[in-house]
Specification:
Layout (H helix, E strand, L loop, with lengths): L6 H13 L5 E7 L2 E7 L6 H25 L4 E3 L6 E4 L1
Antiparallel strand pairs: 1-2, 2-4, 3-4
């Protein structure tokens, strides 16, 4: 039976990120056969700082996502083209 992420999971995950001081938000898209989730990173006013901030924020966010779903017995797979999209496998 496939694992399903419900809206309560999404709300709790976003609350967890906020409690950890992260500004990222997680969004859910439901596509045929598989739910796709994606990470929205905060925007920086200074373009020269954006890459550094995005990289740090993304890595910390991914760590929190993996920990959150591990507690629920779920495994996360991030896309290989930047890691902002992910699925439950």
């Amino acid at each position: 039976m496939p694992k399903v992420v419900n809206f309560f999971d999404l709300i709790h995950l976003n609350e967890r990120l906020e409690q950890q001081g992260l500004l990222s938000k997680i969004h859910l898209r439901d596509t045929c056969g598989k739910q796709t989730l994606w990470i929205e990173l905060p925007s920086s006013e200074k373009p020269d700082e954006r890459e550094k901030i995005d990289g740090q924020e993304l890595e910390k966010t991914k760590e929190q996502i993996e920990a959150f779903f591990a507690i629920k017995g779920m495994t996360v797979e991030f896309d290989l083209t930047g890691g902002k999209n992910f699925w439950i496998v």
